[in-house]
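Bumping my old thread because nobody answered last time. Still need a sequence for this structure:
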């Protein structure tokens, strides 16, 4: 069976939709903490099981019968690496033959960024598992662009941090397509795979593109970390939440996002979409 964790989330749902177009429903194993959220898929014949990554002892039974497993990274900051390690260990005990994991660019167990650090720790667990794996280092979802730019906007400007990082944005749908391909295709590349959109664009480049689309100049102002924390406070962030988001912004501004890759088109037959339609949908301020 083709299995996945986090099946009731946005990405998980998209992957299952893709799988249903390619394989029988009863060969799909959808695991989630909330099986009731997948009642519609169970009615279609998808095998739905409860799986809680905070309960490692339960996972071998949850993954039983799976030959290939997609581990979708969780959104927990407190114990994310432990959750992922539990999923890997449960897969080993269940006899899974190949693991797919949704990682991130520049994942590094020693990173200053907690997000990249936990992804790096998970990749180390994958390497140590002895199971062939594919770690999809997905770039940043362009689906989140409107919200991100909204949070960074103020007084007619877009704020950013110092740095020349340029994420290679792609859609959640693009990431679901490559995850589906990796789950289904025994011949897909193994190891660490960079998954990107078509074009690297930092916040200044996005602001320039948005200026062209909206027909007015939107200046960019570089803030210090302290100034960004204060700005996020005006958007309703608590100090703790602002600090967490600051880490993501540092990644955007200073991160290593690799080179543009062709893996989405190569393995799915569909080119990843550009950011322009996403930017065009942002209301004129």
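Sorry it took so long. Here it is:
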């Amino acid at each position: 069976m083709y299995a996945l964790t986090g099946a009731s989330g946005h990405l998980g749902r998209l992957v299952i939709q893709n799988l249903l177009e390619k394989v029988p429903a009863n060969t799909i194993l959808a695991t989630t903490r909330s099986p009731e959220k997948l009642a519609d898929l169970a009615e279609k014949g998808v095998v739905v099981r409860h799986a809680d990554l905070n309960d490692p002892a339960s996972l071998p039974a949850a993954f039983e019968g799976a030959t290939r497993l997609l581990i979708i990274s969780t959104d927990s900051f407190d114990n994310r690496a432990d959750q992922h390690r539990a999923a890997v260990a449960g897969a080993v005990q269940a006899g899974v033959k190949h693991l797919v994991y949704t990682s991130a660019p520049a994942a590094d167990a020693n990173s200053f960024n907690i997000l990249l650090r936990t992804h790096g720790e998970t990749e180390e667990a994958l390497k140590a598992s002895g199971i062939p794996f594919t770690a999809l280092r997905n770039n940043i979802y362009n689906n989140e662009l409107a919200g991100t730019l909204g949070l960074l906007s103020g007084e007619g400007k877009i704020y950013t941090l110092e740095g020349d990082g340029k994420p290679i944005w792609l859609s959640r749908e693009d990431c679901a397509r490559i995850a589906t391909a990796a789950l289904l295709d025994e011949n897909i590349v193994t190891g660490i795979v960079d998954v990107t959109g078509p074009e690297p664009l930092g916040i200044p480049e996005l602001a320039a593109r948005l200026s062209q689309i909206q027909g007015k100049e939107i200046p960019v102002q570089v803030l210090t970390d302290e100034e960004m924390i204060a700005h996020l406070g005006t958007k309703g962030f608590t100090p703790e939440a602002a600090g967490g988001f600051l880490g993501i912004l540092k990644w955007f501004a200073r991160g290593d996002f690799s080179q543009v890759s062709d893996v989405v088109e190569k393995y799915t037959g569909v080119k990843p979409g550009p950011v322009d339609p996403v930017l065009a949908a942002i209301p004129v301020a």
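The longest strand covers residues 98-103. Let me know if any region looks off to you.
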